[in-house]
Amino acid sequence: MITCGARLEAIAVPGVPLVGAGADVPALVVRAIRDAGLAPADGDVLVVTSKLLSRAEGRFVDLARVEPSARATELAGAVGKDPRLVELILRESSGVSRQAPGVLVVRHRLGFVVANAGIDASNAVPPEAPADSGPWALLLPEAPDASAAAIRARVESEAPSGTRVGVVITDSFGRPFRLGTVGVAIGVSGLPALWDRRGEPDLFGRTLEQTITALADQVAAVADLVAGQAAEGRPLVLVRGLKFDPVREPASALLRKPEEDLYA
Amino acid sequence: MITCGARLEAIAVPGVPLVGAGADVPALVVRAIRDAGLAPADGDVLVVTSKLLSRAEGRFVDLARVEPSARATELAGAVGKDPRLVELILRESSGVSRQAPGVLVVRHRLGFVVANAGIDASNAVPPEAPADSGPWALLLPEAPDASAAAIRARVESEAPSGTRVGVVITDSFGRPFRLGTVGVAIGVSGLPALWDRRGEPDLFGRTLEQTITALADQVAAVADLVAGQAAEGRPLVLVRGLKFDPVREPASALLRKPEEDLYA
């Protein structure tokens, strides 16, 4: 059973620093929530940017140390990108979805279709980097569902007994057909990824496929708005107003099977 | 200049009834806001479901009165849908994007790519319908940008002088690659459809395409969450926490040009 109250709030939780490799993200999250005077309540969803996790996991790569394969070099020529970046993109991917000058959309090893394998080239420099190093790239986190679960366990262990929260790890993805990026869930714990609102029959007495809501993606979109321009300064957003029974459902529940995807 | 505060709120505004053809939506919106004790403030965005507008515009169609063309009948056979519904879908569209058993994705006459031309088959019955009529379908609104502008003008005229709000007309769309629907903007007034957050150079000194946020779509996603299961009862959501200079930018600003779309 999932419901949304008549008022939904998304609150940027201050006090989470721009971390480097080795940072304890669950501890940072718990401390930031406490320092902000926000007591986690049943149904709260904590939304964490992938960038915070990637930095904490040390997913920085110095392109100067990447040796592009022949395939990466050829593909880089075709799309007009740095061969070392293309090498990283291919290593992070299970296949290319579309390529064109300036564009390289792949299926990420975690299953989702995303430009450049989600590799971030802004603010990707590790704190300890020598001045003459780089350029740097930042890969997506290793296992966002597991990271979400670890954050959830820590938050719940510090909250009043029996409190159940959700955690969503987000990234900003582009889309076919439509311009601009939107927040999407690449890791989930506790919160149902999908919200099955079926029940009403359609014209023909069948249930409507369209009434399954991408709950975790829409929560990610809310948080992405609040992260706003100051993305570096707002890596943690609390979304309050949902009620749900905690589930074990990975972010991959949001993915169409490639063989059922008419646009794959 | 666009900003989002550290707290974003989405509030379902109660008191908007399930209307029939001829309802004055701007008047309904103003009255519901006032009755809820919500004074519109600068930067507020009023989000209205397409279904409310469609009903007010009388976009109901009795399928019993639809004569399918030969093409609609053939296509209906291929995808396993009612030929009369397929006829309506084709009339509302400029072309078919993908077809498969059970699936008919088209480019709507308004430009966006959507399953079934956004035609709704649930709660599509007009209030005055005879018991033996139907089945009924509900088409998307005629001109959502113009409807958004009319609502905005009415809200601003009743608000303290100089108050500037945004209005978004939403629908729930499916997506390639990912399961579940998300709220998208099919009409916009005042609010910038896109939020250009570029400025930081990427690895190669260029600006990042990825830092343009689909602002109106993300606002639509927030509202879609709040509309929740009770979609019929929550056709109006107030989103508070953004600041923006009002612009004239249609919802089509969110659409990729077909010739630039690798998935078209």
Outline the secondary-structure elements.
The structure is a homodimer of 264-residue chains.
Chain A lengths: L1 E11 L12 H11 L9 E5 H7 L3 E3 L7 H10 L3 H9 L1 E8 L2 E6 L4 E3 L20 E3 L5 H15 L7 E8 L8 E8 L5 E2 L15 E2 L1 H13 L8 E9 L20
Parallel strand pairs in A: 2-8
Antiparallel strand pairs in A: 1-12, 2-12, 3-7, 4-5, 5-6, 8-9, 10-11
Helix pairs in contact in A: 1-5, 3-4
Task: Provide an overview of this structure.
- Two copies of one chain form a homodimer.
- The first copy, chain A, folds into two domains: 2-58 and 141-258, 60s Ribosomal Protein L30, Chain: A (2-Layer Sandwich), CATH 3.30.1330; 60-138, CofE-like fold, CATH 3.90.1660.
- Chain A is 25% helix and 26% strand.
- Chain A contains six helices and twelve strands.
- In chain A, the strands form four sheets. A five-stranded mixed β-sheet of chain A has the order 1-12-2-8-9. The first copy, chain A, has a three-stranded antiparallel β-sheet with strand order 4-5-6. A two-stranded antiparallel sheet of chain A has the order 3-7.
- The longest helix of chain A has 15 residues, at 144-158.
- Chain A starts with a strand and ends in a 20-residue tail after the last strand.
- Residues 200-206 of chain A have low confidence and may be disordered.
- At the A-B interface, strand 1, strand 9, strand 11 and helix 6 of A face strand 1, strand 9, strand 11 and helix 6 of B.
- Strand 1 of chain A pairs antiparallel with strand 1 of chain B.
